[in-house]
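tokens incoming
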């Protein structure tokens, strides 16, 4: 699985459905959007996708999800005859900077993450594979420690299920976990060492 950085510049395009897309994530766990991709020869369904807000402050990573389609050609957003490659992305979290913090460029340009290109000239570039695990860890920690309205990676996101016993409803609260690659990798490594301890 490769990881790609997509870009949104509010100076060039007004994301009028932003709050509606966030509400859809709250209701269904995801929202599916198309986004232009520069690295169209590399990207595949299942690849990881991050979205960075550029152009005006605040700047930083504001969304993450997974690519769901191969690239396809569509008309440029400006309405010109130019065609651009796009992919569909299932976003599992989107932040609105009017209400929530973003993973800002100061954090992204610190330490090992400074090896990445966080202000790309084009949307949909591959992120340096050597920093992907650290990016996932920083993103996971950021979401877990900030006031995020719809956070799929912490226990505050709950699903309520009702079970019935002899006609009496009993509410069972189940913690919802999503497929954050960093969390998944950490979990696998933990239980692998527990199931197969070194002799």
């Amino acid at each position: 699985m490769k990881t790609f950085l997509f870009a949104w510049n509010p100076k060039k395009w007004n994301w009028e459905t932003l709050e509606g897309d966030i509400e859809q994530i709250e209701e269904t766990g995801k929202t599916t959007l198309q986004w232009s991709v520069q690295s169209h020869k590399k990207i595949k369904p299942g690849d990881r996708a991050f979205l960075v807000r550029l152009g005006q402050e605040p700047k930083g990573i504001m969304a993450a999800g997974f690519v769901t389609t191969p690239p396809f050609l569509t008309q440029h957003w400006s309405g010109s005859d130019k065609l651009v490659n796009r992919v569909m992305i299932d976003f599992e979290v989107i932040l609105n900077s009017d209400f929530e913090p973003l993973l800002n460029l100061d954090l992204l340009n610190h330490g090992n993450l400074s090896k990445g290109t966080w202000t790309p000239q084009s949307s949909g570039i591959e992120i340096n594979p050597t920093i992907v695990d650290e990016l996932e860890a920083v993103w996971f920690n950021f979401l877990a420690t900030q006031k995020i309205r719809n956070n799929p990676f912490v226990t505050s996101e709950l699903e309520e299920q009702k079970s019935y016993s002899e006609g009496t409803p009993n509410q069972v609260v189940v913690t919802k976990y999503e497929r954050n690659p960093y969390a998944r990798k950490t979990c696998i490594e933990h239980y692998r060492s527990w199931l197969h301890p070194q002799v």
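note: The domain at 3-145 is CATH 3.10.590.10 (ph1033 like fold).
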